Amino acid sequence: MTYTPKSDFLNVMQERGFVADCTDYQGLDEALISGVVPGYIGYDATAASLHVGHLMNIMMLRWFQKLGGKPITLMGGGTTKVGDPSFRSDERPLLGPDQIQANIDGMGQVFARYLDYGEGDNGALMLNNAEWLDGLNYLEFLRDIGRHFSVNRMLSFESVKSRLDREQSLSFLEFNYMILQAYDFLELNRRYGCLVQMGGSDQWGNIVNGIDLTRRVLDHEIYGLTTPLLATSDGKKMGKSANGAIWLNGEMLSPYEFWQFWRNTTDADVGRFAKLYTELPVEECERLGALGGSEINEAKVILANEVTALLHGREAAETAEATAREVFEKGGVGGDLPTLELTAAEVGDGISVAQLIVRSGLAKTGKEAKRLIADNGAKIDDAPLTDAGLMLDAAALASPVKLSAGKKRHALVKLAD
Predict the structure, then answer these.
(1) 177 assigned ligand-binding residue
(2) Is 114 annotated for ligand binding?
(3) Is CATH 3.40.50.620 the classification given to domain 8-227?
(4) pLDDT, tens digit, for every residue of 203-233?
(5) Which of 8, 100, 129, 164 has its CA 20 to 30 A from that of 47?
(6) Angle at 228 (CA atoms; ends 59, 245), nearest 5 degrees
(7) Which CATH superfamily is domain 339-415 in?
């Protein structure tokens, strides 16, 4: 980015590493200076929770509001019925309206932690594109909107081209998605004066489509701003762990497990992640990232505390840190560890430790649990676990049993009261 912005928002975005590209830096900058700018990011309701892969863009919306913008979280109640084909190798499973609404409700719990949906000039809005998509008349839509799209150009977008180059099927249903997303931007501009769409750089083609459509239909100038697609320094996709997605809803991933994900950040990523995922001053983020030796571990604790506090509250972050210190430094149990509660009926005459490892989330399958034990990667109450066939009865579980997979992942198993 060679343009030197005058607005606080673009300055902060540039300084903290949020910006991949913008359709018109100067135009967006001038709009931001001149008054309250509504801006949106779209989220299809494909799961009951957002995950860490969404967090950079959520933080972008948070900064947008803190620095005077009006954030819009656009829920894809309509587009989820189609499914975004961008950079996917297959078609998304289609969801029914009840499941879509349940997912939107779950995602809304996360947004409420980061954004203020108050009544002020820049109070956030949560909208649903089903509001305008569900009632579309197909023939009118083709005539008024479809005529502005060139199939030749749509085929040239990388998200579509990569699928076709691999000779993987792209249904007409999915091919319509980019038209619907472009129409979202048009409707948000027409109804709410929305001037900017933000999103990951994989959405560039969809964003540009919306800008072109709005210019053709309404003759309005609007803008696009994208964030880089983030990977960890060791090349892994951001937001994935050995146990799957890092969910942002506390019911799907405990605050302790969320805290642990950030505590386990690779040394080289600490400074960069602090800039993106916390509100610590940039100078402090750079200081933390420059630490070495044992000091970098304390920097990771600060990172984990700050990110967890934003999502789950400061008390949850402090509890997670205390649990981690109890588990790692003192060899204790820690009251905030993920806990599997079993009834006496479930335990019966005994339950295998391999099964407990799976049910507590430390392994995905029995085969994986047995391999973990065979490779000396499992412990029970901090002692090496060598027998995959070990059976635990109700008496053995009368006091909580601590299971460990490697050095960093732990869970408790106990009988329900």
Answers:
(1) yes
(2) no
(3) yes
(4) 898 899 999 999 999 999 999 999 998 877 7
(5) 164
(6) 65
(7) RNA-binding S4 domain (3.10.290.10)
